[in-house]
Amino acid sequence: MPSIKKTILILALLGCSGLIYGFGPGFDEVQWLSWSNKCLFESYAPPVDAKLKKWELNLTNDYFLRLRKTYQHGNQEYFSFNLHRLNNIEYLGSDTTGTLKFSTIADDIIVQTYDDPKGDLDSMATSFELPVRNMNPARLDSLKNALNYFKAKGL
Predict the structure, then answer these.
(1) In a domain, 12, yes or no
(2) How many structural domains is the chain composed of?
(3) Is residue 2 classed exposed, middle or buried when 0-12, 13-18 and 19+ CB atoms within 10 A define those classes?
(4) I want to staple 80 with a disulfide (CB 3.0 to 4.6 A). Which of 11, 46, 66, 123 is the partner?
């Protein structure tokens, strides 16, 4: 009997994980967008770099995931893609630290640099890695659900 109770408890917790992270019946697009941006902001673990002045990571209301990193001397790195082109989200790591790898259908990720001493770059890629922290399984599942929700909205 203890194994049945344990199984029921685990299923109940998994079912409620969406509620823990704010998802519930009637959750509208604005709430999904707000939660997704909060999750991304709190989870992003920018590389430790004394030259990194600031970073901006956001999911826009037209379903673009964007990351802009600005360095001390003004040079910038920019990554952007529309979620309707999202093919897969992989997570490599533990509950405390890891990497989210976003893959798109084709070369759908915009990669640009500005004011780079090595020269400006303007290209496209099929994957983009985002270092993250504190990404437990329930939080990861909720983020994936939110991003897949926006992927479907963008089709």
Answers:
(1) no
(2) 1
(3) exposed
(4) 66
Q: What is the pTM of this model?
A: 0.79
Sheet holding 52-59, edge to edge: 52-59, 64-71, 76-82, 109-114, 121-125
Estimate the share of the chain in helix, then strand, then coil, as percent rounded to the nearest 5. 35, 35, 30
Q: Would you state the structure tokens that stand for residue 59, as one six-digit string?
A: 């999911």
* 7 in any annotated domain: no
3-state secondary structure of 44: strand
Angle between helices 2-20 and 137-153 (to 10 degrees): 50
User: Over the stretch 48-103, which tens digit does the pLDDT of each residue have?
Assistant: 888 899 999 999 999 999 999 999 888 999 999 999 999 999 999 999 999 999 99
Q: What does the alpha-carbon distance between residue 61 and residue 92 come to, in Å, rounded to a whole number?
A: 27
Residue 95 belongs to domain spanning: 26-153
**Joined tokens for residue 152:** 């479907």
Contacts for 53 with CB less than 8 Å, ≥ 6 apart: 70, 71, 72
